Amino acid sequence: MRILYPFAKRFIAGENLETALKNIYKLNDNGYLCTIDVLGEDTHNPGQAENARDEYIALLKAIETHHMPLDLSLKLSQMGLSIDPALCRKNVEAVIDAAGQHTVRFDMEGSNLTQAILDMCLELHQPHSNLGIVVQAYLHRTEKDVATMIDKQISVRLCKGAYKEPADIAFQDMQAIRENFLKLAHPLLKEGHLPAIATHDETLIRHILQFIEKEKIAPETFYFELLYGVRRDLQKHLLDQGYQVRIYVPYGSAWLPYTLRRLAERKENILFVIKSLVQE
Ligand code: FDA
Question: Which reaction does it catalyse (predicted)?
């Protein structure tokens, strides 16, 4: 699968911390905030889960003197959730402790883990803690989850959802997903704690901009969050308009599952890969 690396490079900030940090500093210098994801997921080996924990702690150590306002994003399946929830909790707590004021957000994964990820977040959350969560607009359950997170004032990143889910639990039609995204974004923007609107969908962004203007929502009370390497023009446009723009920056050697999800999101990406393979 190394053959996909030239494509992966567009979406990841490097295969190691040193390269990633150069890109993170560059983004910071240009006015963007960053959320860092050490790539890896679905670990079935306790040693690998501990290595992932240590990589996050090494990252925090490396930026200690830079006072960068960065967030961390973690996949609980990388921290050992599918092996043993107690091991996962121990690893996550170590990262949260090391993170201090930096927000630690749990990425949302496939629906077999949704409840366990939400439960872990609610269990570890304390008032004013640095914990955040992601919710997916394609899931029917998410309206209820958003209400819970607003009630607890846990910071939420709202995205459409990137996994293949069945019709009995998830909207399948893009229009329905968009409508639900907006239905969820409105209360988050009005009453949520520092929500992040995570999409590159210009129709959604246009609606959100109209909503915040109508409701007089201050730009410092929420983020737009976009993926590293996706729609840089839109990232810059939002930044230039005075919004807080966060870039989700993944790095590490386990780039394949993340890259395959980015590939699947757009048929142009698949065509690009096929074309470059044919040209080899
Ligand atoms: P949509 O897919 O409609 O894309 C809109 C436009 O953006 C496209 O027309 C294209 O121009 C561009 N674009 C989008 N994806 C692209 C790609 N892969 N390559 C090139 N161009 C692309 N999901 C999840 O299940 N759990 C999570 O924790 C997260 N976390 C997360 C963080 C952040 C910051 C973002 C932005 C997204 C996520 N996601 C996620 C992924 C999310 O669920 C969704 O799959 C993608 O964001 C694509 O959906 P969009 O809303 O961007 O719209």
Answer: L-proline + a quinone = (S)-1-pyrroline-5-carboxylate + a quinol + H(+)
